[in-house]
């Protein structure tokens, strides 16, 4: 047990110290500090944590599941429908452009088809959490432009998860087949729609039963149970467990018992999610920092920024801040890191590409707050 408890204690303490440093002194999201301290205490630096340890990886993956569950809880289906067409426009272009550009540029620079399509997939998702946090800090979270960005980011996550499921299916079969890709996409869509439709009917009753129980934390336990069951069912269906966790969050966000368990679920996620980010950093090999990695990261960064900016500026609508929407779509954040982790674990990408993806996630996250502050000035005046 010492081999498990001591590393977790080190990771949690390091995560909180790193996160505090970034938030207090650098005015950046805590996730940046959590990743960077992971690099510091990882095997290629201080050597306190083995980023390839299977037990610690399993615990970290639980953190990823809880993280996507929390993202789903913070998403509003009603708001998605309100800004639906505009958010869908930005989201679809925000998936197609980075996927196509990332794939094309990686192929041109001599990478394999698997690595190229996975890089494109990893660049599709926009960070809901980071963007929402910046909007809240700027006082424009309830603005129309912000609603479009957050709606598009959620749709991006859903589409990105479908792309991830498709890419994972290709990895299992060893080759691309249009029929297999359509089959995986169909399963992913069917699972998401089925989980939401059935869940909206079943979960209120389950939570009412839990509410009637006298045992402590029955409602929050029931919510986590539902999330884990849907995550497990997603895995059995050949999808990533985070797909099921995200669907569970979307469903439970609509229940009247949400106020009873949301803070408790967030507290659980606050324990496990930092472990995931620290393990992401600990998995980085410092030996992979070379000219090749820097070149790959530079290519990805251009694709990441340009593709989302074009998607936002192309929105055919008036009365919105297109630059605010474009910049708000740039940060990759949590889902991009989860993509990278899955790719490395399943040997779809090498150390250089993995490190480059993490660098791009960090870079896009760091540039967004100052740029968004400038872009949102007109929105602040309008609201």
Explain what this protein looks like in three dimensions.
The protein is an all-alpha fold. It has one domain: Na+/H+ antiporter like fold, CATH 1.20.1530. Helices cover 79% and strands 0% of the residues. The longest helix has 35 residues. It is globular. 52% of the residues are buried.
Q: Helix coverage percent of residues?
A: over 70%
What is the percentage of strand-forming residues?
A: under 5%
How far apart are the termini? Answer: 55 Å
Shape: globular
Number of strands: 0
Q: Which CATH C-level class is it?
A: Mainly Alpha
* Domains (count): 1
Characterize the largest beta sheet: strand count, sense, and whether it forms a barrel.
none
Order of helices and strands: HHHHHHHHHHHHHHHHH
Low-confidence runs? none
**CATH architecture descriptor:** Up-down Bundle
Number of H- or I-type helical stretches: 17
* CATH fold description: Na+/H+ antiporter like fold
Query: How big is the Rg?
Result: 20 Å
Oligomeric state of the chains in view = single chain
Q: What class do helices, strands and sheet pairing give?
A: mainly alpha
On the 0 to 100 scale, the average pLDDT is 83
What characteristics describe this protein?
383 residues, mainly alpha, Na+/H+ antiporter like fold, 17 helices, 0% strand
Concise overview:
With 383 residues, the protein is mainly alpha-helical. It has 17 helices and no strands.
Could you give the topology of this structure?
Blueprint: H1 2-26, H2 30-41, H3 54-73, H4 77-82, H5 84-108, H6 113-122, H7 128-138, H8 144-173, H9 178-212, H10 218-236, H11 241-252, H12 258-282, H13 291-313, H14 322-328, H15 333-345, H16 351-375, H17 377-382
Helix pairs in contact: 1-2, 1-12, 2-12, 3-11, 3-12, 5-6, 5-8, 5-13, 6-8, 6-15, 7-8, 7-16, 8-9, 8-14, 9-10, 9-11, 10-11, 10-12, 13-14, 13-16, 14-16, 15-16
